[in-house]
Design a protein that fits this description.
There is one protein chain. The chain has 684 residues and is of the alpha+beta class. The protein folds into four domains: 220 residues, Heat Shock Protein 90 (2-Layer Sandwich), CATH 3.30.565.10; 131 residues, Ribosomal Protein S5, domain 2 (2-Layer Sandwich), CATH 3.30.230; 91 residues, Rossmann fold (3-Layer(aba) Sandwich); 189 residues, no CATH class. The chain has 20 helices and 22 strands. The strands form five sheets. A nine-stranded mixed sheet has the order 1-6-5-4-7-3-2-8-9, with helices on one face. A five-stranded mixed sheet has the order 10-11-14-12-13, sandwiched between helices. α7 packs antiparallel against α8 and α17 packs antiparallel against α18. The protein starts with a strand and ends with a helix. Bound molecules: adenosine-5'-triphosphate (ATP). Adenosine-5'-triphosphate (ATP) binds next to α2 and α3. It holds the Pfam family HATPase_c_3.
Length: 684
């Protein structure tokens, strides 16, 4: 018997490891099983090379729980270890690894990420004692038993073992008893070992006999040794991919399409990425890609390894070349990881491009489910935008699809304004903005539908990318001003008429919560609507953007700002102007004449005082100006009162305001009720 001390300086290292890796105790099983698989693969390689001449036999790796003894045993029939090898690989190398590990992380325990390749060591996270009973595959090798109780002391002794290979026996700690439960081990095997390349058996298959569940002779193999991504794409059918997808994500809808990744230079990577239908909420889709290293599950958190937008995809990536025992911030700057990320991005865009080219119709049908993914990609990865701009689509209000170039060609001649800017008209809601879309279409313009979750930032991005182009929502102004072709005709009304008309309508606008209305008079032609509500593009967009970007809270607080545009060419508006003049002229006459007088006085005072230096102006003169101002305000208020009084009784004014509000879905509550009653009165 040999006794020794493992070359560890820290007195008792295991409690430290346990504490550090508390949350990830479960990876011990992955590490033990993959060591057993490695040992088996090594033996197969030796046999292939003719260096091992014995019978390979059954190579199944077995996992057994002995509840009474409180142990889990992982057994393999792989290469096994001689006493020297134990000394070299377990005592020296493995344990010196722990030193490095502690050295690296002693100041920064938080840096330890779950999938640090702790290897054999991780067994001590859950065990009070670990034994290795092993016999090397080499001719005449003797079986040895190594054991260690968690202090840096180990024992090594002769042992009885018929068969080659290793049994790793873990004496599970009292505070880790959960790992002695069958269901827990099943869960872990299913998570980490589902696709290991060597059969892994956990107990026997069971069957129902005489009302009881009993073991059969057949091994309960928990893994698929040849998962789909390891096979040659040419041998696979669509159904194979779909059924593999179902085994990975039993609850998900069928994927739209997939990419089989397969590279061996300059790095090794295989995998299958699936495009799920992404309907509306991108956050629900994340963390579905599983990362494997030689068929061992590592993580489903792949940020840092693939560009963020690709985390919306599903599937598996398997690469031995992704350095997993480093922190995430390191991963992002690692050159190999960057290459992998670039490769995957390129593959994804190539695939989309080829589907687009080969089956435009099918691609268009999938567009609505694909759009969020592609938009996200274009917004977050410049290199993806450069490719995606050729197969990203724009949809018009008729449901027709165009590439960016096609759409530009479509609207170029008709939708360029007098300043040479190309105006892209869009709608975010076909129903709500129906009449605005109609008036744009009446001009022969095309309106795009931008109603997706990311369309607000996409519009800003496109405005930066596309030259001399502007995006404007159809209801942001009257169409002739959105795409101004020539200077707009001035209203025929004189200043007084215009002011009075504005006052009449303004006085009757209902107070809407968080909304602000500016009243404007415009000449929109006899056939145009009498009253139109528009919403300023800039303000609306700033508010929309504030939902996506921090630091724009200021805009989020602002009220919505609308314009109420009165069409001075419309017969009904003309009627209001004439009727107002007829009914208020008498009352307004003295007020207006007084107002004009005061205004003239103010102008004169301003002029004379303007010539003097401030210190030369007397108190008397100052008071005079102030009193004049006051008188003006007074007269204006009087005038407003007369107009308001008049407007109150004018059902055309009320009806026109309400119709405009109704058109925008803003007529609600008491105002809606009043409108309905008034309408019925009018019909009577
Ligand atoms: N079941 C086994 N059969 C034969 N050799 C084993 C077995 N388990 C461990 N070993 C030997 O012990 C060594 C150390 O194992 P450990 O798991 O700590 O590191 P590793 O497998 O080399 O690397 P990793 O950190 O990726 O797990 C292995 O390289 C191997 O030589």
């Amino acid at each position: 018997m040999q006794k020794g001390n493992i070359g560890v300086t820290t007195e008792n290292i295991f409690p430290v490891i346990k504490k550090f890796l508390y949350s990830d105790h479960e990876i011990f099983l992955r590490e033990m099983v993959s060591n057993a698989v490695d040992a088996t693969q090594k033996l197969k390689t030796l046999a292939d090379k003719g260096e091992f001449k014995g019978e390979l036999g059954d190579l199944t790796v077995r996992i057994a729980i002995d509840e009474a003894a409180g142990t889990i045993t992982i057994s393999d029939r792989g290469i096994g270890m001689t006493e020297e090898e134990i000394d070299k690989y377990i005592n020296q190398i493995a344990f010196s690894g722990v030193n490095d590990f502690l050295e690296k992380y002693k100041d920064n325990a938080n840096n330890i990420i779950g999938h640090f390749g702790l290897g054999f060591y991780s067994s001590f996270m859950v065990s009070k004692k670990v034994e290795i009973v092993t016999r090397s595959h080499k001719d005449g090798a003797k079986a040895v038993k190594w054991s260690c109780d968690g202090s840096p002391a180990y024992e090594i002794d002769d042992a009885e073992k018929e068969d080659r290979g290793s049994d790793i026996i873990l004496y599970i700690d009292d505070d880790c008893k959960e790992f002695l439960e069958k269901s827990k081990i099943e869960e872990l095997l299913n998570k980490y070992c589902k696709f290991l390349p060597v059969p892994v058996a956990f107990g026997k298959k069971t069957e129902w006999k005489d009302g009881k569940q009993v073991d059969t002779d057949e091994d309960n193999i928990i893994n698929n040794v040849e998962p789909l991504w390891t096979k040659a794409p040419s041998t696979l059918k669509d159904e194979d991919y779909k059924s593999f997808y179902r085994t990975l994500y039993p609850m998900q809808d069928e994927p739209m399409f997939w990419i089989h990744l397969n590279v061996d230079y300059p790095f090794n990577l295989t995998g299958i990425l699936y495009f799920p239908r992404i309907k509306s909420n991108i956050d629900l889709q994340r963390n579905k890609i599983q990362l494997y290293c030689n068929q061992v599950f590592v993580t489903d958190q792949v940020e840092g390894i693939v560009p963020e937008f690709l985390t919306l995809l599903h599937g598996v990536i398997d690469s031995p070349d992704i350095p997993l025992n480093v922190s995430r911030s390191y991963l992002q700057s690692d050159r190999d990881v960057k290459k992998i990320s670039t490769y995957i991005t390129k593959k994804v865009s190539d695939r989309l491009q080829s589907i687009f080219k080969e089956d435009r119709k099918g691609y268009e049908e999938k567009w609505d489910d694909l759009k969020l993914f592609i938009n996200y990609g274009m917004l977050s990865e410049e290199s993806f935008y450069d490719r995606a701009k050729d197969f990203a689509l724009m949809k018009d209000s008729e449901g027709k699809y165009f590439t960016f170039d096609e759409y530009r060609t479509l609207i170029k001649d008709n939708q360029t304004d007098k300043d040479g800017q190309l105006v892209y008209l869009y709608s975010t809601d076909k129903e709500e903005q129906y009449s605005y879309i109609e008036s744009a279409k009446a001009k022969g313009y095309s309106v795009m539908m931008l109603d997706g979750q990311l369309d607000v930032p996409v519009v800003s991005m496109l405005e930066q990318k596309l030259e001399k182009s502007r995006f404007t929502r159809v209801d942001s102004d009257i169409i002739d001003r959105i795409i101004a072709k020539e200077d707009i005709k001035k209203s025929e009304l004189n200043d007084d008429e215009r002011d009075n008309l504005s006052d009449v309508f303004r006085s009757q606008m209902p107070q809407l919560p968080k909304s602000e209305f500016y009243v404007e008079v415009q000449s929109l032609g006899e056939t145009g609507s009498p009253v139109v509500i528009t919403q300023n593009e800039y303000m609306r967009r700033m508010k929309d953007m504030s939902r996506f970007q921090a630091g724009m809270n200021f805009y989020a607080q602002m009220p919505d700002s609308y314009n109420l545009i009165l069409n001075s060419d419309h017969p009904l508006i003309k009627k209001v102007v004439d009727d107002c003049a007829a009914n208020t002229a008498e009352a307004l006459k003295p007020i207006v004449s007084e107002l004009k007088g005061q205004e003239a006085r103010r102008a004169a005072l301003n002029q004379s005082q303007g010539k003097k230096k401030p210190e030369e102006i007397t108190q008397e003169e100052k008071d005079d100006l102030q009193n004049t101002e006051k008188a003006i305000t007074e007269q204006k208020d009087k005038k407003k009162a007369v107009l308001t009084d008049y407007a109150k009784g004018n059902s055309i004014v009320h009806q026109l305001i309400d119709l405009a509000l109704l058109q925008n879905g803003m007529l609600k509550g008491a105002s809606l009720d009043a409108f309905l009653k008034r309408s019925i009165e009018l019909i009577k």
